[in-house]
From TrEMBL:
Keyword set, alphabetical order: Cell membrane, Electron transport, Heme, Iron, Membrane, Metal-binding, Repeat, Signal, Transport
Species this chain originates from: Paraburkholderia susongensis
Name of this protein: Cytochrome c, mono-and diheme variants
InterPro entries: Cyt_c-like_dom, Cyt_c-like_dom_sf, Cyt_C_IC, Cytochrome_c-type_DH, Membr-bd_ADH_cyt_c
Annotated residues for binding of heme c 2: 240, 243-244
GO MF assignments: electron transfer activity; heme binding; iron ion binding; oxidoreductase activity, acting on CH-OH group of donors
Transmembrane domains' residue ranges: none
Amino acid sequence: MLKNSSRAQPDPALRHTMPRRRLGGAALAAAFSLFALSIAWHEAHEPGVPASDDLPITQARADAAAQAPNAAPAGSAASDLVKRGEYLTRAADCAACHTADKSRPFAGGLPISTPFGTIVTPNITPDPDTGIGQWSDADFMRAMHEGIGKSGERLYPAFPYTAYTRVTEQDVLAIRAYLNTLTPIHYTPPANSLKFPFNQRWLMMFWNMFNFTEGRFVPDPKQSAEWNRGAYLVEGLAHCEECHTPRNFMQGLKTSERFSGAVQAGWHAFNITSDKVSGVGDWRDDELVAYLSTGAAPGRANAAGPMGEVVANSTQFLTPVDLRSIVVYLRSVPAVSGGETRPRHQWGNPADDVTALRGTTITGVNGAQLFLANCATCHSWTGQGVGASAPGAYPSLIHNTTVGASSANNLAMVILHGVDRTTTHADVLMPAFGDHLDDEQIAAITNYVTKQFGNPQATITAGQIAKLRTQQ
């Protein structure tokens, strides 16, 4: 029946409407053509802007990166390109999303939860059948800059092309050159699981109209080279906004609240604007650099969850120049208040519950008892930690930004999933208690810790713990 439907004659009662529809369609096409021509005319007559690759952006270097085993001989142009590409790939933290199994690096398969369903990351090794081995440089460039795949399919913004569009062509090609040196892995990740109509990729053209501006980063001549380098990294390669900026109902970024914090898969990516209460405005430069390079800023914060992975996979490898540039740029981000009245690191007092509990019969679920039984060995029963600021120290829960946050989510997620952060600075390991304690017990420990050592207004229920367990 469908095959014959194209041959069916129009209903005579509707024939008089068809010319009008054709006329309306022609008028719309003509209007669009005029609009396109006007854009082309303006592009042709605007003052020339040099290509982004020619602008004075400090070039990234991979001085500390290990050379790929199958790269060209040392000192050659090809080797330098691959070496630089490795550095840039780390700056972009590509491994975080494209590695679900450490035995299959860059082979994809990581499920990413969205309000519209689950997106599974693709294989980006040079395997010709399941990876990007048959992609041309132009294909790769179009994916990075425009969010369009090799076959013309529109990519979902879980892949941050909205940020990568700012990366220069030469840096994109350097990343491509490095990816070409990876061991090809023949692996096809599972398919996406998206609800209708969100599984229709062509609809992304409408999403892009409201949430995506294609174009390379253009340095601000009024700012220093250091600021411009920081902006290039934060806004482009490092795509910091993807986690630290709230999203609108379409899941696009709220540009009016840039870097003011957002929740991703249960984790709260905190406010990193220059606000001195809610953000990082009163952090010293060396504290910010230490946090990005080691994951620890004593008396401030210790990276865990997705941010711990960012430090382990990416920011610890950045050069001191790039780290300072990021700090310089973040200092200039307009302050956005998160509503807090007290900085997150200024909460807490030592506990003395171990004395009060001696000889006491405990009934029911008791947060203090659970803390002493599961946490005090490393964090001390007073909550002051062990090892002070030494590398690998067990951090204090007092003056700790995770414990002093207005939401208890991150603390609960750390208790559920633990911490595993490896850097050149230290191997940091906290065991996960999600398999050993039930929702009520984890809620009790979390509420005890926030009440005693952090923000007492941050509480959580067993039901909320149950929801956090399901987050990918």
